[in-house]
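User: Predict the complex.
Assistant: Input components as received:
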Amino acid sequence: MNEVQEILPDLLEQTAIMLQIVGLGMLFGGVAGLVVGTALYVTRRGGILAQPVVWWVINALVNLVRPIPFIIFIAALQPVARVVVGKGIGNEAATFAIALAATFGIARIVEQNLVSVDPGVIEAARAMGAGPWRIIRTVIVPEALGPLILGLTFAVIAVVDMSAVAGLVGGEGLGNYAITYGYRQYNEVVTWAALVVIIIIVQLVQGLGNALARKVMRH
Amino acid sequence: MTAVDGVSIDVERGQIYGIIGYSGAGKSTLVRLINGLEPVTSGSILVDDVEVTTLCSRSLRELRLGIGMIFQRFNLLRSRTVANNVGYPLEVAGVPRAERAAKVTRLLEFVGLADRAGAYPEELSGGQQQRVGIARALAGDPSILLADEATSALDPETTEEVLDLLARVNAELGVTIVVITHEMEVVTRLAHRVAVMEGGRVVEEGETYDVFTAPRTETAKRFVRTVVRALPEGDELAALRAKHDGRFFTVSFTDAGATEARVFGALARAGVDFNLVHGGVDDIQGRVYGLLTIAVRGEDAAIAQAFASVGPGVSITEAGA
């Protein structure tokens, strides 16, 4: 127990840093992913803003980025991070890489959920004189909200996973803490404490996501 | 792919116009040309003297505010309550919130669902959902209502309910209705005029009563047969002959003045014995159409004399002759 008490301040600090990295990554990646995913959905053939060329470009980009293992992606993105967030190392650089990778992952999740929206209700909205932007805002997103929440919950957990690699570019967080102070210094207490905290966080996020989705879907 | 080709129809203001055909006949595409949901490759579509085919997307959206549409699967927004579904077209039209609420209440009263305003679509039966669909379609005070297989997903009882409501929409609000269906009963119950579609073309068109009582094409005949017990043929006729003696005659009458009683009376007066073996009398748009097969036993001369005395408005032919 004493060992845990000893590491507690560091553990809490690293938890806070991880939550910040994950939170910002999800914020930027979530918003951008929603935009890119919606763009994929509406520009596809038969979509309400069908643009085959635009769709092809976005689709190719998503397919290009998604298969890259994140540990390589975060390293390869350093030069871009230097330009965008000012430096290639540290929490900001890690957050940037996470947000970008999350954007493409979330885009696919969003697209898949939007595809499940009944085309009939979209046609009904068109028949009532609604334009494409209004249909996206008032029909497509609200109708898919439940699955979208579940999809974004899934994404949060994927982002937690990504955040564990932040240490590669000098970022912090529970992942880096567990590897640097636990694994490398043969301190199993640190490793396991970080692991338990991550499990608790993931459980809380999943529980919250499930509850929200249930509320939205009314069952 | 060409879905509709060479179709020319006129729907008069205030009319209920039926378009009947099997799936794939092009009727759903045809109705979507009216509000521009489907693009045209060539031709002209006039709605209240406005050429739909050349409208820009903005004008097209304005046009759609004045054309209501209801669907086979109702297409209500699951994420919205009944009241917010009905209010949706009013939101699109930019109607202020207070005005919107008052209008939604009136519309829900009209369709008899005022007490379900706060319910979500999945809490309603199919018939109720379609009534919400009708209320929603009427929200923009449309002059035209397009009904795409509006009763095809409903059981016979709720179909009645929805057809009655559509008839009221036409009679009380003066809304022109275009009804797409594959069910002849819907046409005979509602439509003043009907077009029969097959392979993307209109193969027969006219007053419902005329098409119904004297179908010219095989497709129209098949649809008529789904509601009227058609003349017995082949095995069915042979089975009837085995059960009943005498000569078989088919009696049809289309005029309001003629009834089966005149035929039966004439036969009775001539002392000829007869049985009604097949058929029935239908009501189409308030007009009578009878198609009966009778087995008659008696002297040929007496039978001929009896039929001669029946009078106009009734056509009698010997079955299988």
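The longest helix of chain B spans residues 156-173.
Let me know if you want any component modeled separately.
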